[in-house]
Amino acid sequence: MDHGGHGMNMDLPPFTLGRGLEFSADPFFLIGCAVALALYGYGVVRLRRRGDGWPVNRIVLFVIGVLSIALVMCTRLNDYGMVMFSVHMVQHMVISMVSPILLLLGAPVTLALRALPVAGRGSTGPRELLLKLLHSRYMKIITHPVFTIPLFIASLYGLYFTPLFDFLMESKTGHIAMMVHFLAVGLVFFWPIMGVDPGPHRPGYVMRMLELFAGMPFHAFFGIALMMASQPMVKAYENPPASLGIDALGDQSAAGGIAWAFSEIPSVLVLIALVFQWYRSDQRTAKRSDRAADRDGDQELKAYNAYLASLQARGQ
Fold this sequence. Notes:
With 316 residues, the protein is mostly helical. It has 15 helices and no strands. Helix 9 runs antiparallel to helix 11.
């Protein structure tokens, strides 16, 4: 297969981490990452200029999320990913399961809603358009688990085990489209689960955990299928360049192991985040109850004690 459209040398030396991390930018993702950081930074600066705060931890998480995309798309990992299934799988897993989680924890939608100015009466500005999109029927559909879970699964089995993957790998545009798809699927899948930004689908914490674990076993099964296969299952990687010094079946097995491992790691990270969010939500609820009790002299408790006393009096 000719990968010349990617502007890369097919005679790559054997893969090492050092070689993989050398700078080799894909212009599309380099510009996209720069724009994302600039827009986020503009939002934070705009808030602080008017005296509003924005959590530092959200800034850090968002920046790391953007840098994780740059790590796999703007280094030679992207070059090696064209000829090594294992490296491609690292790209896929990071951009679909790590980057989205970090980006969503940065709460970019909430930042945009707070930073964008409110349009005048009778007019529609960017903030109003964003709110309209958030509450649209389209968003209700694409963030519902009936849609997100099958999409998440189909992005594995429907892509790698059909000719579609080979078709996309034949051109630079196809490869970029595939990676954008992975990122979009990850964002759509994890958005309602993380629950940081507002959205039309906002389940409770137990349902979020169920949604998270509903898709993960399919990731594990996909990885195991690659590891146990007795022949190359993806045509694009069945004849790796001799300069790499790798075996196609061994490289595929490594790719399966990476897919299997990544089905576990993000699950644990998201679970920790959900438990922390749940704890903070309970703490806020308890504080609101305490403030209400202070304001009304704990009338609710007094009423309950009076009710118990009345029951006791009737029982005598």
